[in-house]
């Protein structure tokens, strides 16, 4: 079994920048946030 898979998504640059700023303050990378989200659903 593969250890990881790649997810590609399109998002508005402004939204991405704002979200990354929030995640940085939380000490979390975008990858970690997406993993957390996927594990919750």
Automatic annotation (TrEMBL):
<dbReference type="GO" id="GO:0006355">
    <property type="term" value="P:regulation of DNA-templated transcription"/>
</dbReference>
<dbReference type="InterPro" id="IPR013321">
    <property type="entry name" value="Arc_rbn_hlx_hlx"/>
</dbReference>
<dbReference type="InterPro" id="IPR007337">
    <property type="entry name" value="RelB/DinJ"/>
</dbReference>
<dbReference type="Pfam" id="PF04221">
    <property type="entry name" value="RelB"/>
</dbReference>
<protein>
    <recommendedName>
        <fullName>RelB/DinJ family addiction module antitoxin</fullName>
    </recommendedName>
</protein>
